[in-house]
């Protein structure tokens, strides 16, 4: 009988990526951070966040380390079947226009490859 596996959520994939990064690059651990853009919120919280400067479409993770001519590495996390929203695509274009590297990662191995290629 074949074992059925439950697909990982975007949150679980992102968590695994952060754990790996902090173990692999402890000296850079404080420079990779999550942007709390997603998730369901009540109207009051959403309005307050917008008032405070939250911008729709910003990448899930940002590594604030300039490398190889880039200002930073912006990482959008997705499940294997996830797709970028129009707002995310628009933010990607703007980030890339100003020399930021932008990648979409759908798994821990993709994240590891993207980070290692960027940093090494």
UniProtKB/TrEMBL annotation:
Segments forming domain VRR-NUC: 8-109
InterPro entries on file: tRNA_endonuc-like_dom_sf, VRR_NUC
Segments crossing the lipid bilayer: none
Pfam families per UniProt: VRR_NUC
Co-factor(s): Mg(2+)
Keyword Nuclease on entry: yes
Sorted UniProt keywords: Hydrolase, Nuclease
Highest taxon, organism lineage: Bacteria
Gene3D superfamilies in the cross-refs: 3.40.1350.10
Record-given protein name: VRR-NUC domain-containing protein
């Amino acid at each position: 009988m074949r074992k059925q596996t439950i697909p990982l959520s975007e949150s679980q994939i992102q968590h695994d990526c952060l754990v790996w990064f902090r173990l692999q690059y402890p000296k850079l651990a404080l420079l990779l951070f999550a942007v709390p853009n997603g998730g369901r919120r009540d109207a009051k919280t959403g309005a307050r966040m917008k008032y405070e400067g939250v911008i729709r479409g910003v990448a899930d993770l940002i590594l604030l380390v300039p490398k190889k001519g880039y200002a930073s590495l912006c990482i959008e996390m997705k499940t294997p079947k996830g797709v970028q929203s129009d707002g995310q695509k628009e933010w990607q274009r703007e980030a890339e226009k100003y020399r930021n590297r932008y990648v979409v990662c759908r798994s821990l191995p993709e994240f590891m490859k993207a980070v290692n290629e960027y940093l090494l």
